[in-house]
Structure formats: C-alpha cells, structure tokens
Request: fold
Amino acid sequence: MKDIFKAIEQSAIEIKELIETGDTGKSENQNSTGDTQLKLDIQSDVIIEKLFSNIACVKAIVSEEQEDIISLNKDGKYLIAYDPLDGSSLIDVNLSVGSIFGIYENDFTGPNLVASVYVVFGPRVEMVIATDDVRLYRLIHGKFEFMHTIVLNEKGNLKAPGSTQNCWSAHHKTMVDDIFKDGYRLRYSGGMVPDLHQILIKGGGLFSYPETSDRPKGKLRQLFEVFPFAFVYEKAGGGAIDGYKRLLEVETTHIHDTSACFFGSNNEIQRVLKVYKEHA
Ligand code: AHM
Ligand code: MG
Reply:
C-alpha cells in the first residue's frame, strides 16, 4: 500500500503544476455521467493512470473520467477507484479542488474499501490518508510532511447543504432550516473535497447531498467520491449515511452508481437518521 500512497503524492505534485499552468477550457468529450470534461480533468486522469500503471500491487483501476475498469496486474492485491480532479468547474474562479482515491480489495464495493486518500489543492496542498486512523500531511518544499491526526468532535457547528434547493423534499428542507435555526453556519463552496475537509479540520458539522426530485439517487458517485469520504469520516470518529443506513453498506450495481449522502459528526448523523426514519 505504501507504493500507492507514494504514487498519489507524486500525482499531487504533478496535478498542482497542471492546475497552476494548464488551460482551464473545455474538451470535446463527455464522461460517463454526461458531464463535459475539462482539459484539466483528462490531463489529471492521464497523470494518475500512468503512475498507478507502474505499481505491482495494483490489480485494476477505474476513474470517474473513464467508462470502464482498466486491468493492470492480475496478481495485484488492490483495486483503486479515483476522481482525478473533483470540482474542476471551480478552477476558473480559483476555488479549491481535489483528487479522491478509494482503495479496495476483491471488488469495488463499500464493504471492501480498505483505505482512502484525498488531496486538497487550495492555497496549500494537503493530503489526508485514512487507514486505521486519519492523518493529515502538507506539501512543504516538494515533500509531504505529517501534520497531525484528525478526530471529529461529537458535534460541530458547520453545515454544507448540497444540490438544488427547489428539488429538496419537504422533510429535508425542514431539517436543514432547523439546523440553521440551531446556530449552525453555512459553509458550502460546491467542491466536495474542500467542503468535507473544512468540516473535518474544524471539528465537525454536517455535509449533505440528498436524494432530490431531479436526482433521486443523488449526484455524487459511490466508488470515486462517496465511499472514500465515508471511510474517512468513520475513521475520524464520525458517521456517513445515505439517510437511512451506513454508506459503506449500500449496494453497488454499477461502477458509476451514485448515492444520496450525509457525512458528519455523530450528533448530526443521528439527527439525519431520525428525520429520514420518520419519512421513510
Ligand atoms: P464533479 O465530479 O463533476 O466535479 O462534481 C462533483 C461536485 C462535488 O465536488 C460537489 O460536492 C458537488 O459536485 C456540488 O454539486 P451541486 O452544485 O449540485 O451542489
Ligand atoms: Mg467528482
């Protein structure tokens, strides 16, 4: 697994350079979800694929930017799903973006996720590795230095409410209104990586991307986005649910499946479970 983390570090160094100097324009292509890919999405994907191709323990990879699984080494132990440049549409306005990696064994399903990593490209480049615990590293003079472990408080005070509000269910809207009435502060940039990173680093809160009338299964992809962050939040002492149950137990029928998702401290996750149970 060390080789995988090293490759991710190297990808972060190369993608940082790409973000700073690359063309932020659109490509001619769409990914399998139907989003028009930016040139930066495709170039980041190429960087990561090339680095993983050199690692013997990697059996196969699958990218949010590609249609199918790519087989690498038949005797490899690990399968990696990744979103090379999440939130890339925020680059032209110079907001933070990130890369997300889920490392699986046997197959690409939530219960078989064994580690996850994300990289935040903000004013500084930071990397978070979740295995048994959750560790924060920062890129300083070309090297990732360990900073500290991340542990969520039981309750926080930030709320990141995703998706289009006029497509929310009535009970979701009431829940979000009640959370703000309780004094939570709005923190939502539209980049999953920095939004979830903020809640983790500031001690807690709730990020939601619910089922909506226009996207009944949410927007965020299980393998590349939802499961890796569910693993991080659980290992940091918080929770991650689809409204009704643990995200890491949600079934995957296709590699590009999406799921409604809630990530947060335990207190906020219990609150969501209670509201959604009443409306199931
Ligand atoms: P992307 O993978 O196409 O970049 O989309 C994922 C992003 C997440 O980073 C973010 O949480 C979400 O889309 C925001 O969606 P919305 O604008 O609907 O709230
Ligand atoms: Mg994404």
